[in-house]
Each structure stands twice: as structure tokens, then as C-alpha cells.
Amino acid sequence: MLIVMLAGCSGSIVEYSGADAPTFAPYAANERPRVALVLGAGGPRGFAHVGVIKVLEENNIDVDLVVGASAGAMIGALYASGIKASEIEKIALDFDAKKFVGISTSGLVGNGNALDEWVSALINNRHLQAMEKKFAVTSARVTDNRLTIFNVGNTGAAVRASSATPSQFQPVNIRGVIYQDGDEATPVPIKAARILGAKVVIAVDVSAHLSAIPANAPEAWQIRDRKRAAMVAAEAPYADVLIHPDLGYYAAINQEYRKMCVGRGEAAARAALPQIRAALKL
């Protein structure tokens, strides 16, 4: 893969332009997935995805497509590569967020290089199309926030683009187009799973419940959260099951918060088991 550093307003934008730069290719009719697990965006809230995966694994509920946005792309990469839920939980609880922070011309920003390397190392540098489960990552085109699906090519680069939160992580240039966090296009990419051919979609929304927004929360945050909730609601009818654990409002990166998220994700998934089994006709 050819990686070029380009000057940008918040440090350097990395360009992926080699033969294995992420791209999209529709699945052939005989390769279309039956059951998809969609893991939504949400920063540290994404640790709740680990709890959901634990419950699915414990109940022998298999999925053959994983679709992830932002934090969901990070956890989804591990799951799709074949790493067991118990090991993903250990990785999550040992996670050191400080390694992803670096210095740029605008101050402290997310270090996309570290994120790319972290994912790539854990999955043994496997490409998106070479995972044990089909795996797709969503990102947003910076010019118009248009949804883009990557399911072929370098996994670390795709996850990096999907996790490039504006003002926190530098955007990523892939084949001449600049991308940012998948959350900007759709927080829970349910339609993406349908586009890829999934017959049954189990989706996980880790964004804040609107009822959890405190009255004194900054107005900009409230506007953001209500916009995100509306975007999820627009796609919710396309999911057979939508799991939405209540993770409170203020997120954190300490281990106590991570454990709470895993536990609440697990509880929400257990509560949804009858609906999941009905959707799968188990």
C-alpha cells in the first residue's frame, strides 16, 4: 500500500492509494450474507458492543456479516477476524486510549497511525475480504457526508477512516477522496447491511438515550444528540432487532466505565434474545 502524508489544517492527512486501499465490491448472489450484526458509533460507549457479542456467542447465535461504524468498526474488526468474545473483552479492558493521542499543529489530536497499527496487529493484517466473517466498514465523505462502504482492502486503513472524528482525529484520503468518521453519515449503518444483502439485521445503537440528556448539557451537545437519534430512527425500521443499552450520558475512558458498558450491553442483549430468536426463527 502506498501511504503519503499530506499537509492539512490539523496535522497531516494520510493518503492510501495503493492496490490494497479500501474500496467496495458487491457480494455475488451466492455470497450474500444471511445474518448481519451492525455495530454503531459512539466513542467509549462502543465497549457495550463487547457485551452484545458475548451474549450472541454464548447462545450460539452466529452472524456471517459484521458492519461497523467508528467505535463499532474497531470492535467489529476484532470480532469478524475470529477473536473470541472473552479475548475481545480482555482487549477492551486493557485498552490504553493514551496511545492514540498525538501532537499536531493544532494541539492534541487522535493519532490515526496508532489506531491503524493497533487494529492491523490484532487481526494479523488481514484484509476486509479475508476475515472469518464478512466485514464492512462505513465512513463519510467529507465534502457531503455521503455514506461509503468499504468491504475490500486494507482493514486498518478502513477502520481508521471510519473512526476519524472531526476535530479529534485527522481525516483520511483514500484513492483521492477524503473521509471522516462514519458517525457523520449514519451512526448505526443498518441500511448498509441491507445493501450488502443481509436477510436478518441485528443492530446495536450505543448513542445516548434522549431521556438521559441532562438539562444543563451544552446546547451544542443536545443538538448533536437529537440529530444522531433522528438519524438512527430513520434507519431503525430496516433492522429486525435494534439493541439500545442505556449507558448514561457522560462517557469516560477509565476501566470502570468500560466494565459498565460491557455489562449493560450484555444485559440489553439478553433482554433482546427472544426477539433475536424470533427473527432467526430459532
Shape: globular
Indicate the mean pLDDT. 92
Class from secondary-structure proportions: alpha/beta
Largest β sheet strand count, sense and barrel closure: 10 strands, mixed
In whole angstroms, how far apart are the ends?
A: 43 Å
Polypeptide structure, described:
The chain is of the alpha/beta class. It is built from 9 helices and 12 strands. The strands form 2 sheets. Strands 1, 2, 3, 4, 7, 8, 9, 10, 11 and 12 form a 10-stranded mixed β-sheet that branches. The N and C termini lie far apart (43 Å). Residues 2-10 and 103-108 have low confidence and may be disordered.
What is the fold's blueprint, element by element?
Blueprint: E1 3-8, E2 11-16, E3 35-39, H1 48-58, E4 65-69, H2 71-80, H3 85-93, E5 101-104, E6 107-110, H4 112-122, E7 134-141, E8 147-150, H5 155-162, E9 172-174, E10 177-180, H6 190-195, E11 200-204, H7 219-235, E12 241-243, H8 255-271, H9 273-280
Parallel strand pairs: 2-9, 3-4, 3-11, 4-7, 11-12
Antiparallel strand pairs: 1-2, 5-6, 7-8, 7-10, 9-10
Characteristic key phrases:
282 residues; alpha/beta; 10-stranded mixed beta sheet; two-stranded antiparallel sheet; 12 strands; globular; disordered N terminus
Kindly summarize this structure in a few lines.
The protein has 282 residues and is α/β, with parallel strands linked by helices.
